UniProtKB/TrEMBL annotation:
Record-linked Pfam families: MpsC
Na+-translocating membrane potential-generating system MpsC domain ranges (all copies): 4-112
Source taxon at top rank: Bacteria
Classification via InterPro entries: MpsC (IPR018745)
Protein name: DUF2294 domain-containing protein
Amino acid sequence: MGRNLEHEFSMLVREIRKEYVGNGPKEISTRFIGNWAISEMRGNLTNVEKFMITSEQGRQTVHEARTKLVKEIYKRPEVLVKFEKLTGTRVVRLFSDLNIEEDIAMTVFVFEDEVQRKQG
């Protein structure tokens, strides 16, 4: 029995975040709805970021830096091709945000076609 696509997608998100951000989220869950993949990530912040968010300026800095960094990561062709190979369809758009207080990030991948679940 093979892994399901949601799990494989979540592991790819973790791998990419670790490679480009330096740490990956502690928990990830991904759901596919039509041509969307929605990944919810908990436990994203580093110890330095947790210290920084104790001030309003720190919260703004961490939120802005994390949000911009994630969007830049997913513009890289070598990153996109990994998701496209896994799902069998092209990434056309990405939305990402981070709730600093709850340490929860959401990324919505929009694909050209509906993502077909792999049969176990």
